[in-house]
């Protein structure tokens, strides 16, 4: 699905929608985002050597995973982070890189979803995490 289709599921807009496309296959969400170089989070992180902040990589994972539970999100509801565990940053992500996420849901105790995912660039592992989120009427 493309950005327009993703926006029908996720509430994120403008510079906080961090997926260019995503597909689901056999319970795995595979998403992509190309770091263009002009993103707000690169300004100052770090001048002359821009690197995507780890918290942004975690957000990209969460957005990808939420696509897997799209049918559980009713109108007026949001999915919100409830936890991050075993987060590891292994290799920097820089402007020009195309990120590939792979996420799957490990366990569900509605409204909580427990997931894990990885971020790779050119098959190089850049980040991995276990995380949870909840569907809420926030």
What's the quick description here?
Helices cover 13% and strands 43% of the residues. The chain has two helices and six strands. Strand 4 (98-109) and strand 5 (112-121) form a beta hairpin.
What would your notes on this structure say?
The chain is mostly beta strands and 138 residues long. It is 13% helix and 43% strand. The chain has a single domain (3-136), classed as Thiol Ester Dehydrase, Chain A (Roll), CATH 3.10.129.10. It is built from 2 helices and 6 strands; from the N terminus they run H-E-E-H-E-E-E-E. Strands 1-2-4-5-6-3 form a 6-stranded antiparallel sheet, covered by helices on one side. The radius of gyration is 14 Å and the shape is globular. The model has no long low-confidence stretch (mean pLDDT 96).
Please tag this protein with its features.
43% strand, mainly beta, 138 residues, Thiol Ester Dehydrase, Chain A, 6-stranded antiparallel sheet, 6 strands
